[in-house]
Amino acid sequence: MDPVIEVVALILGFVSWVMVGVTIPNRYWKVSSLDGTVITTSTLYENLWMSCATDSTGVHNCREFPSLLALSGYIQASRALMIAAVVAGSFGMVATLIGMQCSKAAGDNYVLKGRIAGTGGVFFLLQGLCTMISVSWYAANITQEFFNPLYPGQKYEIGEALYIGWASGVLAICGGACLMFSCKLGTKEKAYYQPTRETVYSASASRRDAQSTYGRNAYV
User: Fold this and answer.
1) Which of 44, 72, 150, 196 is most buried as measured by Cβ atoms within 10 A of its Cβ?
2) Which helix (H) or strand (E) holds 115?
């Protein structure tokens, strides 16, 4: 495995993991602007955990969702997927750090290190997929309600947290793909170009036997 690809994949995975941590507590998953109306509240915004409002004086008031079971199904699923993304990213970071060639955790067994790094790539891919599914599902419900003329409730627009989530998912998928494909290519190269100790020993023994046999035949 190329050490440069390992470092690039680790950086991409780490940045995506941090961005997931920024996306989850961000309050602006969906935003509604009510400027210019007679209502005191000027802006409403929500995330997976609470609903907030900002009046014309700049005062923020937030209220956590009272019941998990009372929430919509897509919000519950988005919560679970984002938490799964954080967990998968954590495992991916640990596996990638252990599987890097500069790491001494697995000794000099580069085949084992490559497999561990490849496992880290799988975790990064899972993180990216969970994040993309979560934010895309949430955004699809926002747009569906926004363009539905018969929807009676308050309509919202896509907030900045979803864009951060999309960027995080793309970076995680790119990092995981780099680790997996580079690990596969590195394994093939090592299997083809680097013989094992047993192969070298048997080849040396064969050459010695051939030389000794040729020497005996020369004096016959």
Assistant:
1) 44
2) helix 110-146
